[in-house]
Amino acid sequence: xxxxxxxxxxxxxxxxxxxxxxxxxxxxxxxxxxxxxxxxxxxxxxxxxxxxxxxxxxxxxxxxxxxxxxxxxxxxxxxxxxxxxxxxxxxxxxxxxxxxxxxxxxxxxxxxxxxxxxxxxxxxxxxxxxxxxxxxxxxxxxxxxxxxxxxxxxxxxxxxxxxxxxxxxxxxxxxxxxxxxxxxxxxxxxxxxxxxxxxxxxxxxxxxxxxxxxxxxxxxxxxxxxxxxxxxxxxxxxxx
Length: 240
Description:
With 240 residues, the protein is α/β, with parallel strands linked by helices. It has helices at residues 8-19, 33-43, 59-68, 83-91, 104-115, 123-144, 157-166, 171-181, 186-193, 197-211, 216-225; strands at residues 2-4, 28-30, 47-51, 73-78, 96-99.
């Protein structure tokens, strides 16, 4: 993996924690976003641990470039539990978000989770993302409409396109996607739908494959963009 942080002490600390794990190896370190992009292109690490606030090029821009070029998966690291960093990082294509004050066990677990092809997005973070997406989308819709019909009732082009994509799913797969969009874990979905967790994983794998989604993060975004998840919904199973 590659470590990108403008503080040498932070990079050294992370390197010390990760290097003692037999299945993990730190192959490079970058002091700014531009270096991170260059080293990711040269070294092709499985994971980049990316700080947000760095000189020359910040971590969000660097993440965008790395993901667009398919150089590596990125975990955003920051000392601030700020929603704008979460939203910007996920929009840039990051596969996870982790606070720098996370303990060593959680740091190692995060790297293994993302390396294994899963997104690192805790349910509480997912729900914050959902709430922000709802408020932003609905506020924009209210300001954009006119006439007798409420603007929020008029689907935009993104919703229409997203709904067309969902046509490829079975009713059960739509249910699973809806619950992922609400921030539920596989275990919670299994309990909600009275299914085995292995069955939920199979449905979710089918959803990712049919809709060409990279991970749960993209699934959350699509669930909102398609109108599958609506403002004010807080965990009840989707209908239809």
